[in-house]
Amino acid sequence: MQAFSIRFNKVKILNILIYLFIFWFVIAFLFYPNIQMVFSTFKTESGFSLDIINKLLESPIAMNSLKNSFILAVSLAITTNIVGIFIVLVTEYFEIKGSKILKIGYMTTFIYGGIILVSGYLMIYGENGIITSFFMRFFPNLDPTWFEGFWAVLFVMTVSTTTQHMMFLSSAVKSIDNFTVEAAKQMGASPFYTIRRVVLPIVMPTVFAITILQFLGGLSAFAAPLMLGGRDFQTIAPLILQLNKIPASQGLALILSLILGLAAVTLLVFFTRLEKGGTYFSISKTKAGYVKQKIQNKFLNIIVHIAAYILFLVYIFPVVLIVIFSFTDAEAIHNVQFSLSSFTLDNYRMVFSDFEKIIPFLNSVEFSIIAAICVTIIVLIGISLSRKYNNWLTNIIEYAFLIPWMLPSTLIAIGLLITYATPQLIIGNQVLIGSNVLLILAYIIILIPLTSRLLRAAYQTVDNDFENAAKSLGASSFYTFRRVVLPILLPTILALLVLNFNSLLSDYNLAAFLSHPLKEPLGLLIQRNTMSEAVGDTQALVYVYSTLLMAIAAVTVSIVYGWLLKDKK
Q: Cystine design at 105: which of 13, 36, 316, 548 (Cβ 3.0–4.6 Å)?
């Protein structure tokens, strides 16, 4: 009896310690940095002041960047939905020849994005790009920097951010009740009238959710405006990075970050209320599996096919070029020429034979692995506590896990920088700036919301009767979790580890703020060597790194989908 009491007390103490750790993490890294940033924004040597707002209003560059960010956000929400809904319709709704090939092309955004994607489009349309070089042979007076500014940024971001449409809207369209669609056809409705009045209202909640993501993505866009915006189209996030490096302008960086966060939260609330104000449902009581619809109008059918395949080329071209250039010698890269004589494996030999050249890649792998494992453990513990102890404290933790979803990555980075640049009692008076800890913490923070949502959904599949049966047989909570709950969650956990790892490998947004100069991650190297002044050898290295990252992403995405499909069966 005494031994049982001792074991019970040890388990109870361990649970309390875990509880306290999660609560400390939430306060120290999700609440405290953001609160500190708000105070730092309005704090001066003489006390609290609103002078920074006047300074912002008097800064033409800052005000112009704010305007550009909102213009980009609104435009992106419109253009991405147009393109995203179209590619989903031609792959899932209409009967289009070669739809499986089209889908593969449209899904290339799953395996590359961010800085790699922008560098791919620069290779095509940039100052030394293939299309630019080709046109300049016939039009010598063409401005080589024509692919720059608002339209260039909007074009690249529109194409690159349709991943959510292919992931979520495709599933919504495939779940549409075929009886509803057939009933509309029997009443004489045209295919496009059916889409507008039957299909879109049913999938509108998904469209609303994607629109929110697109708007927030446009508002906090970083890589595309930085590399393609030029002098005429500067947005908030790149400006925040520039201002933060100038001591006299750090106040402006803070207020811009704060405005970005407030705008994000406001828009989330607005879109959520707008979505709740509508009614979206299918009136059929007995559902039938969806059957693809054929476009009866021959002329319209041809137009849709042509548009679908033009978009396919736009999606697939950067990927193909990145791979081809990775096997091309430096001179051919500089002259933008393709030939069998320029084919070489020296680029790969150069990367794998010189340890210094692969260090940035290994740094990114190290940071990504640590962050992916830590965020999974933290979220798993947090959700387990919420299930076991349903009280106000666990509710705070649950909602706190969603905070990073409402904040741009630049705001998170600035908050961590200004908070932990000085000793803070909440972390034992340690200074985190000047180490790799801040970058890893930022990675963990931005991964928390998605990891939390997916793990929470996976937890719903765990039958409480299994846990109760194990406990009734005398099993401890930890033993029950390890032998009953964990095996059920394992496919989702492994999938999340792989996805989280893959999503961080080429990160540039957070690395630009928080990376240590002596341990540079891959994203910074790719951005620096993608610019027009980079020489052929360094550009070749970028293409090799990009190809390796795309290969890793393709393998990991295939593995994840395999696990998830197996788990569903």
A: 316
